Amino acid sequence: MSISDELAKLIPIGEENAVSGLLLWKQLKMWSPMSIKHTLRLMARDGLIERKQVQRDGRETILYFRSRS
Hints:
Layout: H1 3-10, E1 19-20, H2 21-28, H3 33-45, E2 50-56, E3 59-65
Antiparallel strand pairs: 1-3, 2-3
Helix pairs in contact: 2-3
């Protein structure tokens, strides 16, 4: 199974449930954090998931989620 397929199972539905790439990497326990984040960026670019930048603790964080539609 590809990394995208594994990630797709873990990405939550709805913006209010969005999670960071690091959290997804910790849940998946495979590959490196950078390869997970790269795959997430590609999935967002292709419209498979949504990507949102937010400010947390004075730092910019990128969160990922699947849309409800």
